[in-house]
Amino acid sequence: MYEKQPWLSHFGETPATLNYPPDSMYGLIKKDCEKNPDADAIIFFGLKTSKSLLLKQIDHMSRKFAQIGFKKGDTVIVCLPNIPQAVVTLYALNRLGAIPAPIHPLSAPGEIEMFAKLVSARMAITLDGFYPRFAAAQANAKFEKTIVCSIKTEMSFLTSIGFFLAIGRKIKPVPYSDTIIKWTDLQYTGKENVQELEQPDPSKDQDLAVILFSGGSTSVSKAIMLSNKNLNALALQMDAAGGPLVVGDKMLAILPVFHGFGLAVCVHAMLISSGTCILIPKFKSETLAALIKKYNPQYMAGVPTLYDALAADKNFNKLNLSSFKGFYGGGDTVSPEIKKRFDAVIKKGGSSLMLREGYGLTEAVTASAIVPRHEYRDNSFGVPCPDTWLKVVKPGTEEECECMQDGEICISGPTVMLGYYKEPDLTAQVLKKHSDGKSWIHTGDIGCMDKDGFFYFKLRAKRIIKTSGIAVYPSQIEDVINKHEAVRLTCVIGIPSSSQGEAPKAFVQLKDGIEGTEELKKDIIDSCIKHLMPYSRPRTIEFIDQMPMTNVGKVAFRELEEREKAKE
How far is CA 161 from CA 279, 286, 536, in A? Predict the structure, then answer.
């Protein structure tokens, strides 16, 4: 059924197939910077970086990385928010042939150690405010070099003073040394001869470009290997589905660069296609409204909770939104209620656009389907992107389901990952070659397709909680709580949250003879604070006398979910 590609009749002006240059991520941004040297590449706290200057910064930092020991093939942990140094870092490493492995800026020391060991990272790049966590992780992570950036160096003088008074003065001094290196000691100053930096590009389109981390159905994260072609393909697909971009088009880069959609769409797609990134390190609805009023951007991408917050923000509701060409929702299912509220705000702002939902997963860089420009069907996440195939199969097989019959969603196309880092067996469980000769990702998600090729998401076959669009895996939280000396057994589920979509709740069965007190709840939460990122920490703990179990001796988490729903 998928071979007939019924969705093509709904593409409109979007081409069904694209040309993907056999080049690296750096190669494509270099071409655009040379084509549009005077155009803005980055806007950050009012300061603008032209494309020609950005290219010089990337080339320079690539050489500096090489001078201090970074080599082709090295994996580098990158722990940075959406700041100019993050953009320079990612492309400079790509030019060198090193592999960035971005992680969440709020990663706890134990998580930093885990990520570093998982990909055998020798080096790390982080922010001064995050450095204490890296120092705590150093004993086991054993980074040979750690480069430390500061946000204030990318701000105007007056803005940097305000930042220092509000936040900067709370940041502890970093003990710089031969192994802990200040970014500004490597930074481009404008005196370097760029021609001397030119070297043959070591990366090609099929080479490993980036490693992104995903949680797993066990407590172990998965390191997802994405090639240059994977990232380039998604960037070009989004340009085709939402553009084409023209010089001066601006994207509000809110989604973080450690997220596939944030990296490939909010940054890479713009910088290789004449666009400008307005980097936003932390989302605040009032700040975003001010940026829109000042810069009149054309594009914005965010998670459903972001759009829900904006729809309720009085300042955003007063904006003229007629400059926009696209609003994109991803990271989690956009409920019809959120879409309806935000679409009303768009219309009120003078635009005929609608919020366009997408679907994907990190194993395919995060976006494999999108709602067509001018057609929406209730509860559908749209149709496949150019050159991308989706089909629904009977679980455990490659046999296609009939129209509107539920089954497992599978994805094939140019964004499909290379595999999991040093995990061939795990890769083989998810990435399978079918009788049609194509490699398909078995997503584990349950959905269906209608006769016109529109797809519908129904539920996740895997245990997963989506909080503010970020995947949280209950087993990771359970692993931490179960290590507490008072705990016998734990089960974590997602409960509705007005601010986050879902939030983790932990049901805890204590060991015999231990009383469930408020003090004990606080102690368990404190243990989570030490080992888990803020968004993955349980918001609520409920002590339970006896954990419900299945016939095969597993925790019956579905029963706990039903109990929780009955309380609503």
Answer: 20, 21, 33
